[in-house]
Specification:
Layout: H1 2-8, E1 11-12, E2 17-18, H2 29-48, H3 51-61, H4 70-95, H5 121-124, H6 131-163, H7 167-190, E3 194-196, E4 208-213, E5 218-222, E6 235-237, H8 240-243, H9 247-256, H10 269-286, H11 296-320, H12 324-328, H13 332-348, H14 352-362, H15 368-385, H16 389-397, H17 409-417, H18 420-423, H19 437-446, E7 451-455, E8 482-487, H20 488-497, E9 501-502, H21 516-526, H22 539-543, H23 547-551, E10 553-554, E11 566-568, H24 573-583, E12 589-591, H25 609-630, H26 644-650, H27 666-679
Parallel strand pairs: 11-12
Antiparallel strand pairs: 1-2, 3-6, 4-5, 7-8, 9-10
Helix pairs in contact: 1-2, 2-3, 2-4, 3-4, 3-14, 6-10, 6-13, 6-15, 9-11, 10-11, 11-13, 13-14, 13-15, 14-15, 17-24, 25-26
């Protein structure tokens, strides 16, 4: 996500270089969100070798609202496939010592223990119809475990920040947690009971034979996934094999060890139970400390142990019932894969993305139906008993996140009974169209808002009567009309680049007299790339202003946004929620109720590309005719059909200027500002 977000902003102010070239806009807010999404998708897909799962995780769990359409989907998919292909090419080539070597038959999946040529997935991933009910029950229990994990971890996280807020204290905490977990793992591994190697260990794909006695030629076998540690030859550490192995490797062992020989007895009951508890509670304690780590692999590992335990329970139950045939048909690998997916879903509340990720990384295409059923029950039970891990962090950080899902019945009932004016912030911090630089600096220092409404100037023309909060009518609304709004980043860029400054004898910042190249340069200078400008990074810009600059005025009119999204104060909150959710808004201004002048209506047909192209040609033809008449010459040849003039006037291009700017340059200002905004 960081790499993707930085790619669109790639550039250097010092070397006058920016990535944005031609008609491709990499630096808009939408492009930035798209790059972040593609970066997240490509990163997840490359790490787990799951191109489809990476795309689904980016869209299901990493977007505040739907980021695009089919185009965005295939762009993410192209990024994930490219990343997976390059990673796979390098791994296979380097592994075999020949950079030109590429053989997919030697390919090993991210969570697979053996190569695809050795693993017979069609025989391994098997289940019967009644086992789907067992998987659903596993999902319900996993949902409860996931909610318990989230609540326990959030308590640990709050306690951590309350008792240990200093940076060095957090480093010491990470060292202590590392020492504690390592000590527990080493102690358990050292005193672990030893188990004999399976009789058919020589049939395991990773087993190697060693000659112990050259006289009689007796052979012994070694398997890297059955670590002997402190055990004698011919035996392996039942607990140390799991506890003294990285979580990623132990996950593969729990999922797949023994699947090629259909031998499920490599792991004892106690080893699986103790290791799953160790990972479960260790993750709740360590996640969020000063260590770069995530929850994906540990939760999958604990879930795989949970699945194997469930398989052992079902097998013992069937044997007790005298059904040896059904007991022998139980696939421990199938239960381990389902257990890994449901525990991860129970904690994170991810559904389809986790299912596809597990299917791709384990090669478990045969388990699509039972996986989705089990994950559904895990999420349903988890939602009933608590919130997801990532949603809990969003609430803890106070992020105003609006879920894309349909709001609940209770929330919808409340939102439909409340009006917008009952939840809005009425203390607006407004700016006049021509404030002094000193007034603007005071506003920027006092308030941390990201955007400021621009309202009509008062009778004295300065707008100082607004103060900071602005004059208000008896109904609580500002007296003067809003003519636009301006972002903090725009104001800081104007102050930094010296754009829009007016001396005392100047009436307006004349953009129209500037050449095309200068206007384009001005637009580039106002872009917030590659330097981010916000309330925390404004000190350098403000300190660079001289006393002469502070006494100047700043003309906001050519650069402010003239088309704010406005909703009536009597609209219900549910409507405002949908506007924010579907349009990705950061601000929604509220207007007083009452009758308003209607100048037209827009339908879907009016927004089609063909109609917009036609209207642009009509406007160009009308403007050419107007210029020719003003110069006293003949009308140029018509570019459109008859009636273009009236249509152009109806679209608002010949209205009496922008409302609220009723000065002599009102119409000219509208023309210049509109053109400037469209080019941006």
């Amino acid at each position: 996500g960081i790499v993707g977000g930085g790619l669109g902003s790639l550039g250097s102010n010092q070397f006058k270089f920016k990535l944005n070239k031609g008609h491709v806009d990499f630096q808009s807010k939408f492009a930035h969100r798209s790059f972040v999404t593609m970066g997240i998708a490509a990163g997840v897909a490359t790490v787990f070798t799951a191109p489809i799962g990476g795309v689904l995780i980016a869209f299901e769990d990493c977007g505040s609202f739907y980021l695009g359409s089919t185009k965005m989907f295939w762009q993410c998919f192209l990024a994930t496939c490219s990343g997976v292909f390059v990673n796979q090419l390098l791994r296979l080539s380097v592994k075999h010592g020949d950079l030109s070597f590429f053989d997919t038959t030697k390919y090993t999946r991210a969570f697979a223990l053996y190569m695809d040529s050795d693993a017979d997935y069609a025989q391994v991933y098997r289940f019967t119809w009644w086992e789907v009910l067992v998987f659903a029950l596993m999902g319900c229990v996993a949902g409860l475990l996931g909610s318990a994990f989230v609540k326990m971890h959030m308590w640990v996280h709050r306690t951590r920040w309350r008792l240990n807020p200093t940076p060095w204290g957090r480093v010491a905490e990470a060292v202590m947690i590392a020492a504690l977990t390592a000590g527990i793992a080493i102690t358990i591994g050292r005193f672990s009971p030893c188990s004999p190697l399976p009789e058919d260990v020589q049939d395991y794909p990773t087993t190697t034979a060693t000659t112990a006695d050259s006289a009689n030629g007796s052979s012994s076998y070694q398997n890297p996934h059955m670590d002997g540690l402190w055990c004698p030859e011919g035996q392996y550490s039942a607990y140390g094999t799991l506890f003294l192995t990285p979580a990623g490797v132990s996950l593969k062992e729990v999922l797949h060890l023994g699947q090629t020989v259909d031998n499920p007895n490599q792991f004892e009951w106690g080893a699986l139970a103790s290791y799953s508890v160790f990972v479960f509670f260790g993750l709740a304690l360590s996640y969020g400390c000063a260590v770069s780590g995530g929850t994906m692999v540990p939760l999958l590992t604990a879930g795989a142990c949970y699945g194997r335990l469930c398989a052992k329970i079902v097998r013992v139950a069937l044997q007790s019932a005298g059904n040896e045939a059904a007991a022998s048909a139980i696939s421990h690998t199938t239960y381990a894969v389902v257990g890994a997916a449901v525990l991860q879903s129970g904690a994170s509340r991810m559904t389809m993305s986790i299912a596809v990720l597990v299917l791709e990384t384990c090669g478990a295409l045969e388990l699509t139906v039972p996986l989705m059923i089990a994950i559904f029950f895990a999420k349903a039970v988890g939602d009933l008993t608590g919130t997801g891990l990532y949603d809990a962090y969003i609430a803890l950080k106070g992020v105003p996140y609006l879920p894309e899902d349909e709001i609940s019945y209770e929330q919808k009932m409340i939102a439909e009974k409340l009006d917008v004016q009952e939840v809005m912030t009425s203390d607006l911090v407004c700016l006049p169209p021509l404030p002094t630089v000193g007034h603007v600096v005071r506003i920027l220092k006092t308030y941390k808002h990201n955007a400021f409404p621009v309202v009509e100037a008062d009778s004295e023309g300065e707008g100082s009567g607004l103060g900071d909060e602005g004059e208000k009518s008896e109904a609580g609304f500002p007296v003067r009309n809003m003519v636009g709004y301006v972002f903090r980043s725009q104001i800081l860029s104007m102050l930094d680049k010296g754009i829009g400054f007016l001396d005392q004898d100047e009436a307006c910042y004349d953009v129209d007299t500037a050449g095309k190249e200068e206007v384009l340069r001005m637009v580039e200078d106002l872009k917030n790339v590659p330097v981010k400008r916000d309330a925390r990074a404004q000190g350098e810009v403000i300190s660079s202003l001289s006393q002469e600059d502070v006494e100047c005025r700043l003309d906001l009119r050519p650069f402010m946004q003239l088309d704010p999204c406005i909703v009536s104060s009597t609209a219900n909150v549910a409507k405002a929620y949908r506007l924010f959710q579907k349009m990705g808004l950061s601000h929604l201004y509220v207007a007083p109720p009452g009758p308003r002048r209607v100048i037209g209506v827009i339908t879907r047909k009016d927004l089609t590309f063909e109609n917009c192209q036609l209207q642009l040609g009509e406007r160009a033809s009308f403007e050419m005719k107007s210029v020719a008449r003003a110069q006293g010459g003949d009308d140029p040849p018509s570019l459109t059909t008859s009636g273009s003039v009236s249509r152009s006037r109806v679209t608002g291009r010949e209205l009496d200027g922008e409302p609220g700017l009723e000065n002599d340059g009102g119409k000219e200002l509208w023309r210049v500002s509109g053109r400037h905004r469209r080019r941006r």
